[in-house]
Amino acid sequence: MPTSTPQRVPQEERTRAMRARLLEATVECLVERGFAGTSTTLVSERAGVSRGAQLHHFPTKNDLVVAAVEHLTVVRGAELAAAATRLPTGARRTRAVLQVLGEHFASPVFFAALELWVAARTDETLLAAVAPLEQRVGREAHRLVVEALGADESQLGVRELVQATLDLVRGLGLATTISDDARRRGRILDEWAGVLDARLEEHR
To answer: Which residue of 11, 28, 50, 51 has the lowest C-beta tally within 10 Å?
Structure first.
């Protein structure tokens, strides 16, 4: 019987896979060790990539982190979009929307992004990369809430109501980094769901 020859993986595909491992490892390090504790050496070890290969693609820590910011933007947008497709219809929809947002803003990818926010405050290069990407995530989250709730932003105050919702849930996510009081968070979101339903009903 003829022996089969293993197919070689194209170089471009190998490079893409290696970069993906490096970016995922960067996000994991940001979550576990924070920005200060994340190093290119640690990332390359976790990703199983040689230091030489890592430095070829990302010569500095900032190069690596900026690429991770872009990666995080895609991941966060995809996670929100996927969650939106599973939302129920009916009376509990508003609370379900808040649950999706609450889980997003208490997720590892959000905590990794939060580490970058803090670091970017005093790093102009990092800020230049983080700010527009965070604005993009913010716009996507805002659009998701508007569509999921059927909110009419042409009505006075509705846009601000949606933005207040995002600010509230993001703030609850920030509080989770110190103490995860899920019961308190749940009660707040229950109350806010009622406020949202009542206010949006006024504009229908």
So the answer is: 11
Measured between alpha carbons, how far is 142 from 149 in angstroms, rounded to an integer?
A: 11
Could you give the C-alpha distances from 112 to 35, 62, 151, 154, 202, in angstroms and in order? 8, 15, 30, 35, 38
Tokens 């989250």 correspond to what residue? 141
The phi, psi pair for 29, rounded to 5°, reads: -65, -40
DSSP output for the chain: -PPPPPPPPPHHHHHHHHHHHHHHHHHHHHHHHTTTT--HHHHHHHHT--HHHHHHH--SHHHHHHHHHHHHHHHHHHHHHHHHTTPPPSTTHHHHHHHHHHHHTTSHHHHHHHHHHHHHTT-HHHHHHHHHHHHHHHHHHHHHHHHHHT--TTSTTHHHHHHHHHHHHHHHHHHHTT---HHHHHHHHHHHHHHHHHHHHHT-
Q: What's the CA gap between 138 and 130, in Å, rounded?
A: 12
Q: How far apart are the first and last CA of the chain?
A: 73
Spell out the per-residue pLDDT of the chain, length 204, in tens: 455 555 556 778 888 889 989 999 998 998 899 888 999 999 999 999 998 888 888 988 888 888 888 888 888 888 888 888 888 988 899 999 999 999 888 888 888 888 888 888 898 888 888 888 888 888 888 998 999 999 999 999 999 999 999 999 999 988 888 887 788 899 999 999 999 999 988 877
